[in-house]
Design goal:
Number of strands of chain C: 23
Distance between the termini of chain A: 59 Å
Number of helices of chain A: 2
Strand order of the largest sheet of chain A: 8-5-6-10-9
Strand content of chain A: 35-45%
Oligomer: heterotrimer
Chains: A alpha+beta (118), B alpha/beta (417), C alpha+beta (477)
Shape of chain A: elongated
Order of helices and strands of chain A: EEEHEEEEHEEE
């Protein structure tokens, strides 16, 4: 089986197979390839950024990010939740606004300042 | 006429980084002129992560990167910031005409840094066929509507251009509830990072059509469909390969071009390769004391490199304003050789440069297991092995000035496989 | 209520006719199917006030072009809109083409139009980018250029200030005449009136046929594609024509009133009355043919577009009262030189109304129509006074064309003001520069929403069919 490594621009075509329990990875250009692929096969993770509605701010949405990469399968659910919430201006950059979503711990931070609309 | 030691035009990553570095090189009495109502420039609409890994050694979003630079500006109170201000005119005596909410006035500077950014190639520039339909947007415009105004430009989207901006918009619009039906790329390879191809397209099963372009846009007043076709090696559509897609939006992510209006007002010549002015290794134009950096000099792939470059510029601004530069200039031409698109800077200012200079370049095509070679008058002075080089990524090599002397005529950078 | 006059079409003809009739005690209504004035053929024409040398002797085109050229400057000055007296040159590359110039020269002498034949070198001393292949040129100093949308907006603004009504987004579906008055059925309401002026451009033959089934003219839409250059270093400063051929005036280089240069058009006949598409082949043709007159194709192209011409199957303008009902005046097949002829055609049509209805002159007619504020046209001291009064005159929104927020807000607030992005674009020029709105479109949307008191998701590009934003984040949940 094959998967393209996304760690660096080289994009190695990693070959892998299972020998019993053991995962054998070949055709990697460096050791970061197997690390990436092992994680990708067990629990793929993705960064999460979106915007959240702001009440009474100079602009109507604030960009937010999850401080750690989140499970790929959780992305849709988390984005869906973040569409439903609203926060009030003023907003300060790097403020934690969400601690968990549907029982799953996740830290969502704002990524800019937004002043109150005058 | 109000006078400053340094006027920085543009308060994005380039302008802020250059101002901070100039300050740290001892320059005071600095003015940053920014046209929007906040510093940060285009970073403010790039809400995804991936910025700062090289420059701040941590991964952050565009707005956070901007915020980080903004805080550094605030720590340096002698840097004055004029927001909602726009430079209308400039002359070689280093006077600028600025329009603000208070007045329109000429200001005088001892040195000027231009960090005015780039603009997106648009439908007319690529001669996109069809009517002037509602629903055809530059990717960056759609990005601002979405990430700053909180509004979507469309619900069924096709994207032309697979650079990182196109790829990131594919993911972003999908997550916001739009259906992205495909991405077409004129070249036979994507200009985006492999990471983005996987996480922005493959994760959402969005097809990527390499060697394809849009040959038709249809609709009455709003875009209703587009047709793409495969192109041959001369980029001409191949008949019989047409595919039609119903969509209400076409995003164009087809490249950036440096903003050069002010440089043209100074009558500076443009380099057809970078579409911006020619500078020497002190980042000065042919008018001493006028410096250029960031995307208005050449289009960068990472903001980190913009900051790095602008930091270098700030140091030379310091040197210039402290009178440490000699007026008599011996410039050694720096040019590109095989497989290299362009090299920045375009010449070496031998007397005024640091002990070594960083040469930035881009390759013309994807290359692997190759060697970057620098020659001085056709004599090899440096050679570096590279595993992979991509046109989308800016590369750099360092050249020690010990290898160059007053008799040198030409420095060349090329890549061999 | 019954109107005295209904004008169908708010292009350059409808607008100038309305402006003429506004001087009289008449109830006048202008109907326009589009969202604004002057957005169809007027906008996408070459914008030239031709000298009148070219049309065939004895044709309506020759008559009205010559007259219109003499009237245009006064009209533009009166309305405080741009009129660029740039002059024009017809270029000949060999002795055979020189013969054609001599014919045109003779036309000019007969029509009392100032003109002379000069050498290619003399032309190049004035226009250095003209091709070295050009050996002779016919100089026509009275050729000029206007900004057609500005003129239509100004005409209707003055007309509206003098109680002419304008209904946009209103399409005429049927017209009947009961012997006493006309009943005009639109997609919004039915309107009664005493007389009708049909200057509906690309649909003028269809409108004429609503009343007179025997109406003889059928329009043949002709599409022309153009390039527009940036306005930093314009490649020409006067209109450069090749020697005309049977297909029309050929591919020209035309300076605009804003320092850009238009290169085009080609001319393709088609069935479709709406399809103003550009094409790779059409633009390729224009590029190739530009090189007949200009040495090097400009590299600073910022825009491509196409416009339609309502060419007739008769090869000439058609203007006459309706054969059937007498109180309807048709202006049909007004293609090139329509812009140049517009003031004279409008006079013909409005004189016809005046003769028919014999109205009194209005006693409180307001002639003054002030120019839009364009900051760059004032000296620095005046600009600073204006910024003191309204700080938004200092806030630049369009960086390419250097348009301030104050100027944009003015263009929305004025009589016949802008209601959408296109309206703002053609009134005050943001989004028409090098970046084509890449930097400022989002800002203009914000300003429009604020001025009109609506949400940004209500803003349209050009009328309610073309909403810019398809939804806010909340809706996509």
């Amino acid at each position: 089986m094959e998967k393209v490594c996304i760690v660096c621009p080289r994009g190695c075509h990693l070959q892998y197979e299972y020998q019993g329990e053991e995962l054998i990875i070949t055709n990697n250009g460096c050791k970061r390839g197997p690390e990436y692929l092992t994680q990708e096969l067990i629990l793929p993770k993705r960064m999460l950024t979106t915007t959240v509605k702001v009440n009474g701010g100079e602009i109507p949405v604030v960009p937010v990010y999850a401080s750690e990469y989140v499970a790929k399968d959780d992305v849709d659910e988390f984005i869906g939740y973040l569409k439903t919430i609203e926060i009030d201006a003023p907003v300060l950059c790097d403020t934690k606004i969400v601690w968990e979503i549907n029982g799953k711990p996740v830290s969502i931070f704002t990524s800019r300042d937004i002043a109150k609309k005058v | 006429m109000r006078a400053y030691d340094l006027i920085v035009i543009g308060g994005g990553a380039a302008g802020m980084s250059a101002a901070i570095s100039s300050y740290d090189s001892g320059v005071r009495n600095i003015l940053i002129i920014e046209r929007e109502n906040e510093l940060g420039g285009i970073l403010n609409q790039c809400i995804h992560l991936g910025f700062g890994l090289h420059y701040f050694k941590e991964e952050m979003s565009g707005p956070t990167y901007a915020n980080r630079l903004k805080k550094e500006i605030e720590k340096r109170p002698e840097i004055e910031v004029s927001l909602n201000s726009f430079v209308l005119d400039i002359n070689s005596d280093k006077e600028v005409l600025v329009s603000t909410l208070e007045q329109k006035a000429w200001l005088k500077a001892k040195a000027i840094v231009l960090g005015v950014g780039s603009y997106e190639r648009h439908a007319s520039m690529i001669r996109l066929p069809g009517k002037r339909l509602n629903g055809i947007y530059n990717a960056g415009v759609a990005q601002k509507y979405m990430n700053v105004y909180g509004s979507l430009v469309g619900k069924k989207v096709f994207i032309l251009g697979s650079g990182d901006i196109g790829l990131i918009m594919a993911r972003r619009m999908t997550l916001e509830g739009a259906e992205v039906i495909g991405v077409a790329e004129l070249m036979s390879y994507s200009n985006g990072l492999m990471r983005n191809i996987v996480t922005c397209l493959e994760d959402f099963d969005i097809p990527l059509y390499l060697s394809h372009t849009v040959i038709e846009t249809c609709g009455d007043q709003n875009l209703e469909s587009i047709t793409i076709a495969e192109v041959d090696d001369k980029f001409q559509p191949i008949s019989g390969t047409e595919k039609q897609f119903a969509c209400d939006t076409l995003l164009l992510a087809v490249g950036l071009i440096p903003v050069t209006e002010l440089m043209e007002k100074l009558d500076l010549d443009l380099d057809p390769r970078t579409k911006s002015v020619v500078i020497d290794s002190t980042y000065q134009t042919s008018i001493p004391g006028i410096f250029v950096c960031g995307n208005s000099l050449h289009v960068h792939d990472l903001v980190d490199y913009v900051s790095k470059e602008s930091e270098i510029v700030g140091k030379y601004v310091g040197k210039y304003l402290h009178g440490a530069m000699v007026a008599e200039q011996h410039l050694v031409e720096i040019c590109e050789g095989d497989n290299v698109g362009y090299v920045m800077p375009q010449s070496l200012n031998l007397a005024n440069s640091d002990k070594s200079v960083e040469l930035f370049f881009r390759v013309k095509k994807p290359m692997s297991d190759c060697q970057v070679v620098i020659t001085v008058d056709d004599v090899e002075v440096r050679s570096i092995k590279k595993q992979i080089l991509l046109p989308a990524e800016m590369e750099s090599v360092r050249l020690s000035l010990a290898k160059v002397d007053a008799d040198s005529k030409q420095i060349k950078v090329f890549v061999k496989e | 209520m019954k109107y005295d006059v209904v004008i169908i079409g708010a292009g350059i003809l409808g607008s100038t006719i309305a402006d003429n009739l506004a001087k009289y005690k008449l109830n006048t209504l202008v109907l326009e199917k589009g969202c604004d004035s002057g957005l169809e053929q007027s906008m996408s024409s070459s914008a030239i006030v031709h000298s009148g040398i070219d049309p065939k002797s004895g044709s309506q085109k020759a008559k009205y072009n010559v007259l219109g050229n003499r009237m245009m400057k006064g009209l533009c000055n009166d309305l405080n809109v741009d009129y660029l007296e740039c002059g024009g040159y017809v270029c000949a590359s060999d002795e055979q083409e020189l013969e054609h110039l001599k014919k045109l020269l003779k036309n000019g002498q007969e029509r009392d139009i100032e003109c002379e034949i000069i050498s290619g070198d003399t032309l190049r001393s004035r226009e250095p980018h003209v091709s070295l292949n050009i050996k002779y040129a016919l100089a026509m100093p009275t050729t000029a250029v206007i900004y057609p949308t500005e003129l239509t907006v100004a005409c209707l603004e003055r007309a509206m200030n003098n109680d002419v009504k304008v209904e946009y987004n209103t399409e005429v579906k049927a017209i009947t005449h009961d012997g006493a008055s006309y009943s005009i059925e639109t997609d919004r309401e039915t309107i009664n009136c005493e007389c009708v002026i049909n200057c509906a451009g690309m649909n003028s033959d269809l409108i004429a046929k609503m009343v007179d089934k025997e109406f003889a003219i059928t329009l043949k839409p002709k599409r022309g594609e153009y390039f527009v250059t940036n306005n930093i270093k314009p490649v020409v400063s006067s209109v450069i024509y090749p020697v005309p051929n049977e297909n029309g005036k050929g591919v020209l280089a035309v300076p605009t009133t804003h320092g850009n240069v238009l290169l085009g058009p080609n001319g393709v006949y088609q069935e479709d009355r709406n399809d103003d598409s550009t094409s790779a082949s059409g633009l390729g043709f224009v590029q190739a043919n530009t090189q007949r007159i200009i040495a090097k194709f400009p590299t600073d192209i910022i825009k491509t577009y196409a416009g339609l011409r309502s060419s007739g199957n008769n090869g000439d303008f058609y203007l006459a009262p309706c054969n059937q009902t007498q109180k309807m005046f048709n202006l049909v097949a007004i293609d090139s030189p329509g812009i140049a002829s517009a003031p004279a055609l409008a006079k013909e049509a409005s004189d016809w109304v005046v003769n028919l209805l014999n109205p009194e002159l209005s006693s409180d007619y307001q002639n003054e129509r002030p120019r839009y504020v364009k900051m760059a046209e004032y000296d620095l001291a005046t600009q600073n006074q204006m910024i003191k009064q309204n700080q938004l005159y200092g806030k630049i929104i369009c960086r390419c064309e250097q348009v301030s927020e104050g100027e944009i807000r003015d263009a929305i607030r004025k009589q016949n003001g802008a209601k959408n992005l296109t309206g703002i674009k053609f009134r005050i020029r943001p989004m028409l520069g090098m970046c084509q709105g890449g930097f400022c479109e989002t800002e203009v949307v914000r300003i429009l929403a604020d001025e009109l008191g609506v949400d940004i998701t209500d803003i349209s590009r050009s009328g309610k069919q073309t909403i810019v934003l398809k939804g806010s984040k909340d809706e996509s949940v």
